[in-house]
Design a protein that fits this description.
Layout lengths: L15 H9 L2 H10 L4 H11 L6 H20 L2 E5 L11 E4 L6 H12 L6 E6 L6 H9 L2 E4 L5 H20 L4 E5 L14 H7 L6 H12 L1 E8 L5 H13 L7 H13 L4 E6 L15 H18 L5 H13 L18 H16 L8 H23 L1
Parallel strand pairs: 1-7, 2-5, 2-6, 3-4, 3-5
Antiparallel strand pairs: 6-7
Helix pairs in contact: 1-6, 4-5, 10-15, 12-15, 13-15
Length: 397
């Protein structure tokens, strides 16, 4: 393998055994294990070492170690999960899945399980921001889990060079390594669940090729982009996001700490999600040529809108989403683009409404702020669950 990508790539297969050993001897990782597994630390380490015997590849690590963990989470923390992938099939092609972002850890991990269960020949390499790699053991773990690193908080010049490197790496991973890739449609999660693709991210994807619209189309086609919609019935981090909205409202300088990030990760993984659904949209290669006559700037805007339409159109809505939309519409003036507003009462029962109202009350009760603004927090929570409804309706119009 070329050494060009050493700073960002996942582990090569020949590096896996050493990486696993270093992880098992990391003191902070051991402390995390001690808090999660009700066994003496030495026994826990021994069981993990036994569980990883014979693993000599990143795919082997995913299937032997990560897949059982994710399956356990799906059993304990969801009421069911489903995967619809009519537009793509297992075979020789590899895909770059570009999705909305619901969970820092699980979005790609659940996709890997679903791909493997659906008999796709390999899982995904994962784009992950280095801002999340707050401890050495996290960096080791994600690189074992086929993650490549996206650099954050760097100068403009460094960003340009880093983006070019990542663009080249992704093209190399799909075409030369024959790997699938997962990448979020934007940096960070959409706190209000109104999922929009970042134009700058699409420009990064095209940087490995020539300039101009024709060059961009060729580069994007090489990645075989597939929009992917990730739908949670309940977002375990919804109350943390609402809390963050108020903290930022009340203090413009407020920023999350490392501890806040860890709490979000743990809550997202172990919190109850209800039903979870993944659905692929039309592959971008099927329609990108319709944008070929656009100037480059307009091309990227149209490409982002096309991906958004696919993600919004394929979002799986639950009764709570429709209840939230109606409650939000009744609480303040509806956006002009949504008028005339039509009730969604046919999509839920009185029991569904009562259950969602009780859910909102329970989530707000978990927020502990000195100047807790319950009206504002309720409105933020309603918006999170209502936006997928509004986006789907606009995508279909």
């Amino acid at each position: 393998m070329t050494t060009e990508f050493d700073a960002i790539r996942p582990y090569n297969d020949e590096e896996v055994r050493e990486a696993i050993d270093s992880l098992l001897h990391d003191r902070h990782f051991s402390q995390i294990l001690k808090g999660m597994v009700p066994l003496p630390l030495g026994l826990t380490r021994g069981l993990l070492r036994l569980a990883t015997i014979g693993i000599h590849s990143t795919l082997g690590f995913q299937l032997r170690f990560m897949k059982p963990v994710v399956k356990h989470i799906l059993r304990k923390c969801t009421t069911g999960h489903s995967f619809s992938h009519e537009g793509i099939q297992p075979g020789k092609e590899r895909y770059t899945f570009i999705s909305n972002h619901r969970d820092i850890v699980l979005d790609s991990a659940i996709l890997d399980v679903m791909l493997h269960d659906a008999k796709f020949p390999t899982t995904c390499e994962i784009a992950i921001g280095d801002n999340l790699l707050i401890y050495p053991w996290i960096r080791t773990l994600v690189r074992l889990n086929k993650a490549f690193i996206v650099r954050r908080n760097i100068s403009r010049l460094e960003l340009y060079e880093s983006s070019r490197l990542m663009s080249r790496y992704m093209r190399y991973a799909v075409q030369e390594k024959h790997e699938n890739i997962w990448i979020a449609q934007r940096e960070g999660r959409a706190k209000d669940s109104s999922d929009q693709t970042q134009v700058s991210l699409l420009k990064m994807l095209a940087m490995a090729g020539d300039e101009g619209t024709a060059g961009a189309i060729k580069s994007i086609k090489a990645l075989n982009l597939v929009p992917l919609s990730i739908s949670y019935e309940y977002d375990p981090c919804d109350y943390l996001k609402a809390e963050e909205f108020q903290q930022k409202r009340d203090d413009a300088s407020w920023k999350k700490s490392k501890q806040d990030d860890l709490i979000n990760m743990k809550t997202g993984i172990l919190g109850q999600k209800g039903h979870v659904h993944y659905q692929t949209g039309r592959p971008v290669n099927e329609w990108i040529d319709t944008l070929a006559e656009l100037p480059e700037k307009e091309f990227f805007q149209a490409l982002a809108q096309g991906i958004d339409t696919e993600i919004h159109r394929n979002y799986h809505l639950y009764p709570g989403n429709y209840v939230a939309a109606d409650l939000l519409a009744s609480s303040h003036e509806v956006q002009e683009s949504l008028k005339p507003y039509k009730s969604h009462e046919t999509h839920y029962s009185s029991g569904d409404k009562a259950a969602f109202e009780a859910y909102l009350k329970e989530r707000i009760s978990k927020i502990n702020l000195p100047n807790k603004d319950e009206h504002f927090l309720r409105e933020r929570l309603l918006t999170m669950y209502a936006n997928p409804v509004f986006n789907l309706e606009q995508a279909k119009s």
